[in-house]
Design a protein that fits this description.
Pfam families: Ipi1_N. It is found in: Nucleus. Residues 1-25 are annotated as: Disordered. Helices cover 56% and strands 0% of the residues. It contains 14 helices and no strands. By secondary structure, it is mostly helical. It starts with a helix and ends with a helix. The chain has a domain at 164-235 and 252-333. The protein is elongated, with a radius of gyration of 34 Å.
Length: 333
Amino acid sequence: MAKKKTNKQRDFQKKKLKVGKSNNLPNNFTDTSFKAKSITLPNQTLVKSHDDKELAHYLAMARHHSPSTRKEILIHLDKHLPSDPAQYKEILKNVTPLIIDTSPSVREALVTLLDDIGLRHPTFIELHANSIVLFISSAMSHINTDIRNDSTKFLRVILKYGPGIIVRSSWVKILKNYCQLLNWHLEQAKKSLVLAVNSSSVIVNKKPKENHLQVLAEFLKLGTSGEKEAQSTLKFKAIHPLTAVYMFPATPEPFGQLNLYKKTELIVSHKENEEEIIRDLDSINCEDEHTRITVFIQHFKKPVTDGLKSLIKEGGNLGKEANTLLTAVESIV
């Protein structure tokens, strides 16, 4: 009994602490500590791969303050285009603003990059065509002459890989920008709405003008006769000649020109409300070819024709390009 009583008293005795030594654990102590181990699974979607991190680094460098660095980044991206199609969205999102870059070498490298992306994945250029056109429009009306001169180089690439969506969604916008780019005044437009640049900033070099006219000719051809050519290439085997009439249309809103579901009608030019007409041109739905031709004839054919006639007088290669385009414009009816 005396021994048990002594052992119970030991449990309630205050033990002296010694420096550098831990307390003795009681006999009934339970260890609750644990160790966690990480499990690595292959192809985890939440973990970025080395290629993704490297691509993000290069895309961030595309906004570098040095023009030479931006150029080298674009060249590197062009030579090392990823095999994963999902990465092209980030590439286009980060390099598109360089359309209005002040460095000519950067813009030249960007044209090459966009062209190579279109060769590999043309659908990505078409998917991002609307956002790219916004920067092209900004370049066509930019205060810097060199940026304006290179603007149609990017437009040529977009027309090459995404022609359908451009002529349907940006028909009026591109034509108005061309009037501003080439100093062609819209007919009956007031001074506050004249889409023209100052005479001091008009293109002096003829070479950019030749490129502008070539791209404009391609743009007008796609917008006014592209659907006819596409329909003519369709080959129906062993069927009735009118089978194409009963097939599903290849373009959205094939009867949009009839305005069946819209209150607004196609805008017709009148002198008394010309200001409203210029502003409302952007609201016209140019999904179908008939509407595009009507809009061009009513609002753009005369200023384009007058501008081309003045360019023909300059002669040389520029005069030849203008004469060829004038013939195509006059055939649009």
